Structures are given as C-alpha cells and as structure tokens.
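Good day; I would like, with your permission, to put a structural problem before you. A protein sequence and the structure tokens that stand for its backbone fold form the material at issue. I would ask you to consider whether the tokens describe a fold that such a sequence might reasonably adopt. I set the record out below, with my sincere thanks for your time.
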Amino acid sequence: MNAPGRRGRGGRPRAPARQAGTLFLRARAPAKVNLVLRVGARRPDGYHELRTLMVPLDLADSVSLVVHQGRAGGVSCRVPGRPELDGPENLAARAALAFRRRFGVRDRLDLSLEKRIPVTAGLGGGSSDAAAVLRMLARAYRVRDRAALAEIALEVGSDVPFFLGPGPAWVTGRGERLAPVRLGPLHLVLVYPRHPGLAIRAADAFRWLDQDRPDQGRPIEGSQTISDLAAEARNDLQGPCFRRHPRLRILVGRLVGAGATAAIMSGSGPTVFGISPDREAAGRTADRMVELGPDLEVHVVRTLQRHPGVFRWTSPRSASSRSVKRSSRPT
C-alpha cells in the first residue's frame, strides 16, 4: 500500500501496511461551549448556516483506542457504566468506521470511553469523542491528510471538525469552516439539568427555531470579532428552547443572581452556563447553584487554548511494571 498522504487508485489516500502487534493510544476529549451561536437560513442540504464562537473546556472524556495491527476484525465500542452508549451507533464508533472505509483499514479496533461530559447536553461530548478517535487513528496510521480527516469529521457530525482544529475558533458554514481565535482564559459555571423531561435533541431545537421566527431567509449578521463577551454572548436557539422549557430560563436567571456576569444556553441545550470574572467567583456561583437541588449537575470549568494531544499508553494486562500509563509527547 501507499503511505497516507500519497494517492492510491482512485486518488484516495491509503494507510500503510502494519506489522503485527498491539498499539495502545489515549486522548482527552474536551467539552465545548458556544459563546456566540447565530443560526441562519436552512440550506438545500437540510442543515442551517451557522456563525458560532466555540471554545474547548477542561471538562473532558477519556477515550482509549487499541489497534490490533495485522489482525483483521471490526470495531468495538464500550462505555463502562453506560451500556446504552455501547455499540456502532456511538459517534466514536462511527468515526472509526468512517476512517476505516476512507483509508482501507482492516485491523481490529477496540474503543473504550470514560464519560465525564453529560450526554445530550449541548456540550459536544459525542462529537469530541469522535474527533479524539480520528486523532488517534491518524497517529496510528500516520495519516497527515488534513483535508481527508476534515471530510470524515463532517460526515460524522457538524461539530466534529471543530474538535479536530487547534482550539477556540469562529465556526461558519455547516461547521466545516474554522477561523482560529485567541481568547484569554475564561472561568465558567456549567449547569446541566438531569431531568429527562428537559433533554433536547439538536434537531428539535433547530426545528423550533424555524417554527418561531418569521425571517428564516435573512443572512446572519455580525463580525468575527467580539469586544465584550458578557454583553455579546448570544444563542439563537435559546429563545425557542426556553419557550418549550421555561425552567431553563429560570436557571439562567439564577446563574446571574448567583454572581455570573452573563449566562446563556450552550448549543442546543439544555446545559446553561455563566461567565465569571475569576475562579474564586465561579466557585461561589457554583456553590449557590448546587443548593438548588440534586437534579442539577454543576461544574466549574476553564476554557482551553488548544485541544489536548494523543498519548501512547501500556495496557495494564501487558505492562511489565506497576505503572499503567507511559506518556510520550502529544501530537
């Protein structure tokens, strides 16, 4: 086979042949928030035009990949403690399957996800897991074709390309165009309501927006600069979701009342978050939100300047020492 980045038949890059062995890789998959989310008209492909400022957070899942080099097989995906997330429908598994199709990989791949990011929360956990898998597979098979990886990412989900990027970015189009930005560290308080009645599917949030607004064809206004996050933080999906779930509006008001300088919903919700001036203030706000009851999951988080890298590790079952992890430089 040709090396990745070179062209095989049909003009498609292919992974190199690998010697038999087992490769263990691990990556952190960070959550995200949308500091700004503007939604334009529905496109002919059914998606909406977006202009959003997305930033990764230090709240992250841990994704492990075992590549059985030279051993043909399928893709397995397990999420310990969350059996409903196991299997091929998980975005992480779908990313691995899409990579295999694109690059002709036949090796058996085993995925394991340690979930810390709430599920169906507007925080991008599933998309971030998928991007982490693509990063690890790109390292395992020495794929450097960024355009091909971006195409795979967009095939899996609209948020996945962001997590393949360098870090905070303005994201436009359906999610495929990234303009990296430098932002100072922000301290946020995330509030995720656990009640299943408040769960919101992204497709429903966009459908509600289309139903509620009379100007569906108007272009998105605004530039890719922002001078005051507390004043300019905005989410076009928030109004329609709040009308269907008034409790979310109350939570935003409680965040501001508890000390946040601004509060909005992240993505398609139902997670809401408040911006705090510093870590100590965020901690005080979080303490007040925790007092509202056990059905709220509250996190104090910090924004990241770049996405985490990929590390090699040693399986506990094959390690010759007591150490489980052996890290190298991230890629």
About this structure: The chain is about 25% helix and 30% strand. The chain has two domains: 9-182, 187-302.
